Structures are given as C-alpha cells and as structure tokens.
Recover the amino acids of this structure.
C-alpha cells in the first residue's frame, strides 16, 4: 500500500500485514515454505501478497516460476562478505528485473503518472529502440 509521496519516484510502501499473512498461509498450504512466520524478504511471498488485479495488470503471473526460483535473492545477496551470499550476477534474474521494471513503469504511465523518472524511462527506452 502506498505510504507517502504517492505518484512520485519517492513513493514508499507499507506492507499489508493481512495480505502478507494470507500469502504465507497460501505457500504453507502448497508446501512451498517451511517458515513459521511470513518472510518479508521472500519474493514469492511478496508476489502472492500483491493484489491479484495489480499482478495481472503488470503481467507478473507469467513470471511466478522466476519469482519462486529467485525467492531468496534479497537474503542471499544482502551481505556480500558472508560465505553464503551469491557471488555472481545471473542473466535470467537481470532480464526478470528489466522486464518487471518496464511493466511497472508502463503501469504508472497508464495511471497518468507525471513523475520524471517514469517519463524519462519511457523516453530513454523509446530512443534506444529507435537506435537499434
């Protein structure tokens, strides 16, 4: 849920505790988590906590397998000095990030956002596409 600075690049969010708990319960019932409590850093939990209408409008449902594959990316890459942290860049993960970012920016544009980041991102992508 938007928290402050709604509609700007500084927009922040508060996690919906009810949606997070429901997502966690869904994953438990599907045997996709053994955690007792919801993990706020688990991409798959966050994916399922997102309202379905927003997931659909961002076309994220088609990427659920990728969110599951990379569900621990925040935890595993957070502290590079830890022996268990990821020491590589995954091209599939980078494509997922670019794809998701483009869809989120497109969503904000459709909502009428005049945020400079959204407008500049779209102009930059269009310029890059024209140059290819």
């Amino acid at each position: 849920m938007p928290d402050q600075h709604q509609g700007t690049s500084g927009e922040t969010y508060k996690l919906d505790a009810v949606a997070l708990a429901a997502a966690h319960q869904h994953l438990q019932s599907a045997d996709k988590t053994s955690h007792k409590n919801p993990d706020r850093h688990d991409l798959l939990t966050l994916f399922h906590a997102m309202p379905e209408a927003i997931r659909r409008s961002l076309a994220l449902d088609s990427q659920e397998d990728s969110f599951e594959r990379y569900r621990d990316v925040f935890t595993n890459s957070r502290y590079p000095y830890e022996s268990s942290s990821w020491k590589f860049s995954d091209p599939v993960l980078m494509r997922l990030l670019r794809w998701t970012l483009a869809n989120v920016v497109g969503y904000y544009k459709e909502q009428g956002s005049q945020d400079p980041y959204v407008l500049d991102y779209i102009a930059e992508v269009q310029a890059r596409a024209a140059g290819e």
Notes: The longest helix spans residues 91-110.
